[in-house]
Amino acid sequence: MTDNTNPQRTELSALGEFGLISHLTTGLKTFHKSTLKGVGDDAAVIDNGDEVTLVSKDLLVEGVHFDLTYTPLRHLGYKAAVVNISDIVAMNGTPTQMLVGISVSNRFSVEALDELYAGIRLACERYKVDLVGGDTTSSVSGLFLSITVIGRAKKEEVVYRNTAREHDLICVSGDLGGAYIGLLLLEREKQVYKANPQMQPELEGNDYVLERQLKPEARVDVLEKLRLAGIKPTAMIDISDGLASEVLHIAKDSGLGCRIYENKIPIDVVTADIAAEFKLDPTTAAMNGGEDYELLFTVDVNDFEKVKDLKGIHIIGHMLEKAEGEYLISNGGSLYPIEAQGFDHMKVD
Ligand code: ADP
Ligand code: MG
After folding, report:
1. 3-class SS string, 186-206
2. Which atom of ligand 1 is nearest to the CA of 240?
3. What percent of the chain is predicted at pLDDT more than 70?
C-alpha cells in the first residue's frame, strides 16, 4: 500500500470521494432479485414483499468529520444518529432500527462514552428508532463512529434520486447555509481560544447557526406535510454536501439539466448576517457548505398549486432537458454553471 516504486499507484486525490466510490463499485453483480437498489442513492432498497427495507450507513472519524474541542459528545452522538436517519427520510421511508459501531482509544472514559450514547439514545427516542446492535473495538488513536440505520417504506412510496422529469419543480425544505456558518463560527472561536485560552468564546446570539451545525434534525415532518398535501416527490435527496452537489446528483442521475434561482434559495437572516461578518456570500454557504440535512426534492409541475403555499417549503427552480445544462441564475440575472464543491475530503484543495 505504501510502495512508492509501484508505477501502478494512483493517489486517492485523483478520484475524489465520488470517483472512488464509483471506481470501487462499478460492475458489482447482484445475486438477489430482492436487491432493488444498490449503490447510488441515500439508502439501499431491498424487496420485502409489499414493503421495502431501506439501509444506510455512515462512518465518522475524529479530526475529519468532527472536532471534539467544540463538539460536545452528546451532540456528536445525536448528530451521527440523525444524519443516518436523514438518509432513510430522503428515500421517503420510516426509520426503524439502528446499529452502532464505535472504535475508541483509551483517551476516552466511560463517562465520555455515556455522553455519546446519551445523544444517540435521545435521537432514537425522538425518531422512534430501536438501537438493536453494533460493534465495539479499541482504536490506536481517536474516536470512530459508524452508524447503520434500517427503515421501511411501501414499495410505491419510495423516492429515488434518479427519477426527476423534465419540467418538474425543484423544492427545498427549511433554510440553507446555516450549518456551514455555524462551523465557521466554531472554528474561529477555536483559533481565538488556541491563541489565548483566557478568552471567553463569543458565541451568544448565534444559537441558530450553532444549533444548525451541532444539532441537525431529519425532516420527517416534511414527509408528513407532503403526504397530507397529496404530493409525492418525483425525486429526493437530503442535503449533506451542499445544494450544488445534491442538485447535480438529482440532475445527472436523472439525465436532465436544471435551473436554480439565487433569489429563491431560502437563507435565514442570522445566517446571512454572520456570513456578512465573514465576508462570505450566503449563497456560497448554501450551495457549497453542506450539513443542513434539509430535503431537496422535485415535484410534478402540475402539483404547483399544492406546493406553492406549503410553509417551510420553497420552490427554487426547475428541471430541463439534459442539453440545457445545470445553472444557477444569479440575482443579477447571470447564469453560473453549478459545480459540486461540497466537502470532498479526499480531494486536495
Ligand atoms: P450520502 O451522502 O447520502 O450518505 P454517499 O455519498 O456517502 O451518500 O454514498 C453514495 C452511495 O455510495 C451510497 O449508495 C453508498 O451506500 C455508496 N457507498 C459509499 N461508500 C461505499 C463503499 N466504500 N463501498 C460501497 N458502496 C459505497
Ligand atoms: Mg444522503
Report:
1. HHHHHHHHHHCCCCCCCCCCC
2. 2
3. 95
C-alpha 236 chain-centroid distance: 12
We find that the CATH architecture of domain 169-337 is Alpha-Beta Complex (3.90)
**Spatial strand order in the sheet of 335-337:** 235-238, 295-299, 169-173, 313-321, 256-261, 326-329, 335-337
Ligand 1 lining (C-beta closer than 6 Å): 21, 24-25, 39-42, 58, 87, 240
Output the average pLDDT for the chain: 93
What class has domain 14-157?
A: alpha beta
Q: Can you tell me the distance from the alpha carbon of 299 to that of 223, in angstroms, rounded to the nearest whole number?
A: 13
Contact 271, 282 (CB under 8 A): yes
Place of cell 425518531: 127
| Mean pLDDT within 27-40 | 95
Ligand 1: residue of 12, 20, 21 to mutate (most ligand atoms within 8 A of CB) is 21
Query: Which residue has the CA at smallest separation from atom 21 of ligand 1?
Result: 21
Q: Which residues in the chain are classed under CATH 3.90.650.10?
A: 169-337
* pLDDT tens sequence across 279-331: 999 999 999 999 999 999 999 999 999 999 999 999 999 999 999 999 999 99
- The residue with greater pLDDT, 348 or 98, is 98
List pLDDT tens digits, range 191-205: 887 787 777 666 677
Q: Which amino acid is at 94?
A: T
Q: Which residues of 36-71 are buried (b: 16+ CB within 10 A; e: fewer)?
A: bbeeebbbbbbeeeebbbbbbebebebeebbeeebb
C-alpha cell at 340: 459540486
Residues of the chain within CATH 3.30.1330.10 domain(s) are: 14-157
- To which H or E segment does residue 237 belong? strand 235-238
- Distance (angstroms) between ligand 2 centre and the Cα of 161 equals 10
Predicted confidence at residue 344, as pLDDT, reads 53
Tell which one of 17, 35, 39 to mutate to probe ligand 1, the residue whose CB is within 8 A of the most ligand atoms. 39
**How distant is the alpha carbon of residue 148 from its chain centre?**
15
